[in-house]
């Protein structure tokens, strides 16, 4: 069984930094994309950033230049370094991973449990 476990959320003042991590565990053969979405109260879920298995990255416009995604493929873990945080970054952050398990069926998207990030002004 494959699981994604997130950690690192919390409360921070505007201008501060946080780092989120998300580790995939279980019967994993390979992982394609790994990334992060977020959802604020009353708003739709939006893409924050993702990293492909060949090292490409992409960011949502609201976080470009402030957030950095990185990945440790040996540990099946993705990180999100969040700098210069703003109150509008307040949301629940969800990681995801497109995983091929040991049965080698086409990849399926798995989600983490979500972690709250709150930025005070």
Describe the structure concisely.
With 121 residues, the protein is an all-beta fold. It contains no helices and eleven strands.
E-strand count? 11
What fraction, in percent, of the residue positions are helical? under 10%
Counting helices, strands and paired strands, the structural category is mainly beta
The proportion of residues in beta strands is: over 45%
Q: What is the average of the pLDDT values?
A: 96
Show unreliable segments: none
Return the string of H and E elements: EEEEEEEEEEE
Determine Rg (CA atoms, Å).
Answer: 14 Å
Taking the alpha carbons of the first and last residues, their distance comes to 41 Å
Could you describe the largest sheet, including whether it forms a barrel?
7 strands, mixed
Count helical runs: 0
Name the overall outline: elongated
Describe this structure in words.
With 121 residues, the chain is mostly beta strands. Helices cover 0% and strands 59% of the residues. The chain is built from no helices and eleven strands. The relative contact order is 0.32. The mean pLDDT is 96.
């Amino acid at each position: 069984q494959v699981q994604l476990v997130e950690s690192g959320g919390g409360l921070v003042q505007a201008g501060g930094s946080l780092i989120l991590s998300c580790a995939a565990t279980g019967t994993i053969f390979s992982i394609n994309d790994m990334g992060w979405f977020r959802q604020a109260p009353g708003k739709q879920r939006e893409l924050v950033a993702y990293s492909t298995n060949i090292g490409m990255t992409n960011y949502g416009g609201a976080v470009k230049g402030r957030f950095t995604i990185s990945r440790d493929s040996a540990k099946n873990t993705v990180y999100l370094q969040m700098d210069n945080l703003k109150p509008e970054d307040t949301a629940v952050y969800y990681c995801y991973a497109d995983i091929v398990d040991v049965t080698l069926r086409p990849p399926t998207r798995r989600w983490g449990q979500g972690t709250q990030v709150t930025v005070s002004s």
